[in-house]
Amino acid sequence: MKILERKKEWGSGSDRMSENFTYDRDWEQIHDALDKAERKQNWHMMKIQRKDTPKEDKVMHMRNYKGLEGVINALRWVLGDRKVTIKIVLGDE
User: Based on CB atoms within 10 Å of each CB, which residue in 54, 74, 86, 91 is the most buried?
Assistant: First the structure.
């Protein structure tokens, strides 16, 4: 996919306040998403720590674990966690 096509698909920066966003999530939905992400991250960590997990599977579980770390940080920031700064969310810290 070409860069211009991706820009059209994702929208521009000014597009963030448009019809692409419904702003209809409530706090309970955000807390539920955080809970699910933390549980899934813990599941991946358990798989990483198991001695019978093959190395290639451990790599996959670690990749998913790290991805969920970003999701969790973003959701915690949205909820106002004082320990999570925008620098942490953006990976600058």
Answer: 74
